[in-house]
Design brief:
The chain has about 130 residues and is mainly beta. The protein has one domain: Lipocalin (Beta Barrel). It is about 5% helix and about 50% strand. A hairpin with a 2-residue loop joins strand 9 and strand 10. The N terminus is likely disordered.
Amino acid sequence: MVAAGIALPAMGQNRMSADQFLDLAMGKTLHFHSVPSGQLVGIEEFLRRDLSVWKENGGTCVYGRVTIEAGQLCFLYDNERPDQKSCWFVLEDHGKIYVRTPELFRAEVQVVDKITDAPLECPNAPTS
């Protein structure tokens, strides 16, 4: 698979369903890093199957509605217009989880670098 002209680190990727990903992510906080740069993109806490809170690297927290559409995991954050929804395919490769935008060329790829139980430090976070 090629992302922005860069191949993913290994060739044994398996598609993970959006439901499988949410089962893994529920109640957890995931750290997403850019492939291939390795830079932290942001951290996302999955509060419910339909609600997350995202914090960009060095940024503020924003809440997002989580949906599954055509097998993709989609997010619409409070600071975005409905046409700015971002959708991702989820892949697993040798124990690593990757998310990839659906574009054939110049797709964005991120790797889940860390999964913790620690909540994000965000004001007024809903808990249910």
